[in-house]
């Protein structure tokens, strides 16, 4: 059971945390016992056979080999998602040498233990490869476990940023929960063409008012250099979450790549990983550290910043690996008490660089702590509880890394605000339930007058079908677009962002428009009301498969309901609509993932192939 909740914590926050702890008691205890047993066995490399050890350091330099053979220093695993196609991950190319140097300075060794795949949803968006995207999270978790399975390491650092990559790395790290784990970001790219201007060009292209040349030029100005995309989608939500959950160094998330401060933070992160192994007096195993309080802090951060809806899947799956049972009801209840403190695109015009400059994570954490909406008495990789994360890094005059108190006031109240005067009193996420099942909706970017939409259904089995109808001029008046057979069992649950420009155009023409889908949209979803992650999905017998064109659908983000207004007797006689899913099961490697589609769980349990 979690430790007692201090009286300074918001009462409902405490109640939710205690409820999660009670619900998770048996599974959490079994997990903690397992990692404690692994820790008791101590560092494994000295117990390996001589041939095993020799294989493990055969390629090392003389000094590193001597330390691994005879020394008492730590061996640090580097698990990297580096590739030079992803702008966010390209800076990681130089990180291993920085980390090795830091490890040697601490009397140990660092080795690249393994690489994990890192696909870019921005490249695969609307393409067949997007149907592998969500499954790549579990592949990354498996690859992480393989990397660490040599059992020659005392701690690990994880190099990853983007959508499914960080959650996959966390799941893999928790499978070796007796090891300390430090996550090292690379930071966002510098600001280019504003996200708002980019969205306008996309909409003009959807209307046929500008050509592909203009669209490509705008996209190239927006995505122009190394670092994460600057909008507040899943990648940057990952960084927020790693910081507020204590897996980053304080203030590390949004420092731009290839700067002296970024390099200093990378070095310091490696040094800290070496300092918190079981070989010293400050042992912080990641499986013990990521407890119920830490996951609640992560969910609160998600709501307060208006982060990605993908985390209603990822956080559930991550927590389950640590024996913690989170539910969408927990997300919903925490959203009710968490104020929205940030307006970062698509919830506003600013990008993450503006957010960081206006106060960033240190300011948000200070405000949430002051309001009693975070647990401050948690373990972190830095130590000192969550209060240490109200500080921000800087370079001293001699070039060394130092920390200073973060700003106590917002640098721009159009971007970030204090808890006493938020943008809205509740978080930007709402749980929907009703006779169509359960779904989530991101309300923080939607105008209040669009929080309730009641209109006839237009049913599609792919986003391409909807786009074709739009181009043909067949979408007129008010309607709810139902795009089904997009769930994890059907085709891997792709993101459906190509729906947003045409639906946005129709909404701007004065129509009442909404989307209902068992697929995903993530943190980049914008102004159109979208009930996503509908579960049960159509391919799993969900009621969404019973909807017919013309059925009246009500999406109510105020009451939290998702209903179909059809005579109950008529509804009871319906049979699920057939769908040909075969084209989504072959090509671009999709045939290799048949076992994933067969084994994957429901969206509300994390859409994972692992037992939860």
UniProtKB/TrEMBL annotation:
The entry's keywords: 4Fe-4S, Carbohydrate metabolism, Gluconate utilization, Iron, Iron-sulfur, Lyase, Metal-binding
Descriptive protein name: Phosphogluconate dehydratase
Domain Dihydroxy-acid/6-phosphogluconate dehydratase C-terminal positions: 414-607
Family (UniProt): Belongs to the IlvD/Edd family.
GO cellular component, as recorded: cytosol
Keyword Iron: yes
Taxonomic lineage: Bacteria, Pseudomonadati, Pseudomonadota, Alphaproteobacteria, Hyphomicrobiales
Catalytic activity: 6-phospho-D-gluconate = 2-dehydro-3-deoxy-6-phospho-D-gluconate + H2O
GO biological process: D-gluconate metabolic process; Entner-Doudoroff pathway through 6-phosphogluconate
EC numbers: 4.2.1.12
PANTHER family (alphabetical): D-XYLONATE DEHYDRATASE (PTHR43661), PHOSPHOGLUCONATE DEHYDRATASE (PTHR43661:SF1)
Pathway(s) of this molecule: Carbohydrate metabolism; Entner-Doudoroff pathway
Pfam families: ILV_EDD_C, ILVD_EDD_N
Residues in Dihydroxy-acid/6-phosphogluconate dehydratase N-terminal domain copies: 75-386
Function: Catalyzes the dehydration of 6-phospho-D-gluconate to 2-dehydro-3-deoxy-6-phospho-D-gluconate.
Entry's cofactor comment: Binds 1 [4Fe-4S] cluster.
């Amino acid at each position: 059971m979690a430790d007692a909740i201090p009286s300074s914590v918001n009462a409902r926050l405490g109640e939710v945390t205690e409820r999660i702890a009670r619900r998770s008691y048996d599974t959490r205890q079994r997990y903690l016992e397992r990692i404690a047993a692994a820790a008791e066995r101590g560092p494994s490399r000295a117990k390996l056979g001589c041939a095993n050890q020799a294989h493990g350091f055969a390629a090392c330099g003389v000094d590193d080999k001597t330390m691994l053979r005879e020394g008492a220093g730590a061996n640090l695993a580097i698990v990297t998602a580096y590739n030079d196609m992803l702008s966010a991950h390209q800076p990681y190319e130089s990180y291993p040498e920085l980390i090795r140097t830091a490890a040697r300075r601490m009397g140990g060794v660092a080795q690249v233990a393994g690489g994990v795949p890192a696909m870019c949803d921005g490249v695969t968006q609307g393409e067949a490869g997007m149907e592998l995207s969500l499954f790549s999270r579990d592949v990354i978790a498996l690859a992480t476990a393989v990397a660490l399975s040599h059992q020659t390491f005392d701690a690990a650092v994880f190099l990853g940023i983007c959508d499914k990559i960080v959650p996959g790395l966390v799941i893999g790290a928790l499978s070796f929960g007796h090891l300390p784990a430090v996550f090292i970001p690379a930071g966002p790219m510098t600001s280019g063409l504003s996200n708002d201007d980019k969205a306008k060009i996309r909409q003009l292209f959807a209307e046929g008012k500008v050509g592909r040349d203009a669209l490509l030029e705008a996209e190239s100005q927006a995505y122009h250099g190394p670092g994460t995309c600057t909008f507040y989608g899943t990648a940057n939500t990952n960084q927020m979450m790693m910081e507020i959950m204590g897996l980053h160094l304080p203030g590390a998330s949004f420092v731009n790549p290839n700067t002296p401060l970024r390099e200093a933070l990378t070095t310091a992160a490696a040094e800290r990983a070496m300092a918190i192994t079981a070989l010293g007096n400050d042992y912080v195993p990641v499986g013990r550290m990521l407890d119920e309080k830490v996951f609640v802090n992560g969910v609160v951060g998600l709501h307060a910043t208006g982060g990605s809806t993908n985390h209603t899947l990822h956080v559930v799956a991550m927590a389950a690996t640590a024996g913690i049972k989170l539910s969408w009801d927990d997300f919903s209840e925490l959203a009710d008490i968490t104020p929205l403190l940030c307006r970062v695109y698509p919830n506003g015009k600013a990008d993450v660089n503006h957010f960081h400059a206006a106060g960033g994570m240190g300011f948000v954490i200070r405000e949430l702590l002051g309001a009693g909406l975070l647990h401050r008495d948690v373990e972190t990789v830095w130590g000192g509880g969550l209060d240490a994360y109200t500080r921000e890094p800087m370079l001293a005059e001699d070039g060394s890394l130092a920390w200073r108190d973060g700003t106590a006031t917002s640098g721009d109240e159009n971007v970030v605000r204090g808890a006493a005067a938020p943008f809205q009193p509740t978080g930007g996420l709402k749980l929907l339930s009703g006779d169509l099942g359960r779904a989530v909706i991101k309300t923080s970017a939607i105008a209040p007058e669009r929080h309730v939409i009641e209109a006839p259904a237009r049913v599609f089995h792919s986003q391409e079908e909807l786009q074709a109808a739009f181009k043909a001029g067949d979408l007129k008046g008010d309607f709810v677009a139902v795009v089904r057979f997009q769930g994890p069992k059907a085709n891997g649950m792709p993101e459906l962002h190509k729906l947003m420009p045409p639906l946005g155009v129709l909404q701007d023409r004065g129509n009442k428009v909404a989307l209902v889908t068992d697929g995903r949209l993530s943190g980049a979803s914008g102004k159109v009301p979208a009930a996503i992650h509908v579960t049960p999905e159509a391919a799993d017998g969900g009621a969404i498969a019973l909807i017919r064109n013309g059925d009246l659908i009500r999406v109510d983000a105020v009451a939290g309901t998702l209903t179909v207004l059809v005579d109950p007797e008529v509804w009871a006689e319906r049979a699920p609509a057939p769908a040909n899913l075969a084209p989504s099961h072959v090509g671009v490697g999709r045939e290799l993932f048949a076992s994933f589609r067969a084994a994957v769980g429901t969206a509300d349990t994390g859409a994972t192939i692992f037992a939860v």
